[in-house]
What does this fold into?
Amino acid sequence: MNAIEIKNLNKSYHDFNLKNVSFNVPKGSIVGFIGENGAGKTTTLKAILNLINRDNGTIEILGMNNTSEDKKIKEDIGVVLDGCNFHDSLKTGDISKMMASIYKNWNLSVFQRYLKKFELPENKTVKEYSRGMKMKLQIAVALSHDPKVLILDEATSGLDPIVREEMLDVFMEFIQDEEHAILISSHITSDLDKIADYIVFIHQGEILLNEEKETLLEGMGILKCSEDDFRKLDKEEYIRYRKNQFGFEVLIKDKLALKRKYKEAIVDGVTIEEIMLFYVRGER
Amino acid sequence: MKGLILKDFINLGRSFKSVGVALVALAIIFIPMGNESFISGMIVLMFAMMVITTMSYDDTAKWDTYALTMPITRKEVVRSKYLLLLMLDLTGVVLALALAFVGSFLKGTGITVETLLGILIILMIAVIFGSALIPLIYKFGPEKARLMIVLCAAIPTAVLLIVAKLNVPFPAIGNEETVFGIIMIAMALISLVIFFASYFISVKIYQKKEF
It folds into this structure.
């Protein structure tokens, strides 16, 4: 069962198009949504949240159509957007009062527990918060109305490594409930190396890759070789290659199969960041 | 929706303080001059303008994008601003009445019908003013709308000035009470119509908006 299902989403702007974007966020999993700045991550997330009008395509969240059952869906999702959206003069108490009248399931004690856990002071205004504190505040708010799905747009970008790790733990804890799901966009791919179950990679408005993370990392590899060796490779065996002054670096689809075929080949493991770089900057 | 209005009032907290200071200063200057209808007008308009202040706060915080990720419909966002406009206008009226009352008490004249009618007229102007501005802000954003605010105030003033220059006779107040009553009712109706028309236009604009 999927928490989010996106089918053939299209949206055109004068200088940018989302082209037939389709992917799912299965319940009980974390989907990492990656791509460069301007690749279409935020546009896709905005379409899921009904913040923009799409040209066509359907989006279902928790089995409900996202345009016709907008309000019902939004009771069940927690959202963190890039940047802080709370007014400077608010304090956590004000925010809680406000949210209590917006969400049916707003839970003050849960909110206060997160404030304490994240060390967010209740007597300061948002203006006095640091960037990291603002992010943590947004995450605390997103988690305090018993959401089933979290949609996080660059929610870890402004945070230092220690706080980022702390937030990743919180997300892992959230996902322990099999009914929950997280869609997280990020360009800090190391975070996704740690927590994502699936990787969806968008480039110039198109989904290039949609795979289980383990399959990707276990299957793919980087072959370092000379030009002669590279010429021996079958087109089917590699995805992209890059040339540098020492020779060729080749992103391999199936590193075990390659090792069986070419016993002496040196094939290294790969990270999500490297996969992304090969896809964007490498040649076919 | 209650949450949205609550948020606006909290954000206006600081503005309320500075408006309060301005009011006390104005009261000290103008009441002894016997000019409490001028300052009553100022109060009501100052409060009406606060809706615009809240909209530019929202714009700075990119609040609307965030609010629409919550279980709030676009219609409710717009409605909250119109309710806020009414609440602020009425708060302004209550304060203006209180001030007029104090002023007339200090002078020992008792509150005059003219002052009361003046406040009523100002209320209608404030409602019309706000109703003209909210859709403009939704359409063009608070930055560009600033210029339009000036135009909104300047055009009627210019028209009035020209009319005055041309020596067109104004309907004389007090001569014909029935005529005056009709004008008041007509104005009240016009401001109501403008208020609701403006609301529907804003909803239309806001529903098409992309964030």
